[in-house]
Design a protein that fits this description.
mainly alpha; 60% helix; elongated; SND3_fun; membrane; transmembrane helix; transmembrane; Inorganic phosphate transporter
Length: 194
């Protein structure tokens, strides 16, 4: 049996989906249905945002107060210098809510980009594509996989804190949260010294 999560999250799936849907929509007369497509897009995005807020309520109902400790990697400042690493003490519930809010912000940025593409450049295909891909993206987030699909969050890619994945699938170990005791003790000492 195929691993549907890996298949649907694979970059080639998104490319193939885009190319197939582009060819299908290219053959249709979309100008006559522009208001219906806009309504479809707005409805889909509102539904996705609603599901995101529903997911927050599910996380709050579970009320997992397990303490999660990790060291957030140093981020680069505007002048090119590295900011110090930050020790993070957070509950699993608060961590999951923060991650869901990050995905809501990403969705809102995507909505803004699609609106610009549509209104400024008169592209119609992104309305259709994002109406469908938005649901796929939401349902395959790590939070949805844990809290909606019931996958185990103790090992693998669903273990908290989540690994930072770049858009092109390249993993930079320097940008990953550190959970080893040595890094946590070092960050605690740095916090006390400051």
């Amino acid at each position: 049996m195929p691993n549907w999560n890996k298949t649907l999250n694979h970059p080639l799936f998104n490319v193939a989906f885009f190319l197939v849907s582009r060819q299908i929509t290219k053959r249709l007369d979309l100008d006559n249905y522009i208001w219906y497509l806009r309504a479809l897009y707005v409805t889909a995005q509102l539904a996705i945002l609603g599901m995101s807020y529903y997911l927050i309520t599910v996380v709050k109902k579970k009320n997992d107060k397990t303490l999660l400790r990790y060291v957030e990697p140093a981020k680069q400042n505007w002048d090119g210098t590295d900011a110090p690493e930050q020790l993070v003490n957070i509950t699993v519930m608060d961590y999951d809510i923060e991650e869901i809010k990050k995905s809501i912000k990403q969705s809102l940025m995507g909505i803004a980009m699609i609106i610009v593409l549509h209104l400024k450049f008169n592209y119609v295909q992104p309305l259709i594509i994002q109406s469908i891909l938005g649901f796929k993206t939401f349902l395959l987030t790590k939070e949805a996989r844990i809290h909606i699909w019931g996958e185990r969050a103790t090992t693998g890619e669903l273990k908290r804190p989540f690994r930072v994945v770049s858009p092109f699938g390249l993993n930079n170990e320097k940008m990953q949260p550190k959970v080893d005791q040595g890094s946590i003790k070092k960050a605690e000492k740095a916090r006390k010294a400051a």
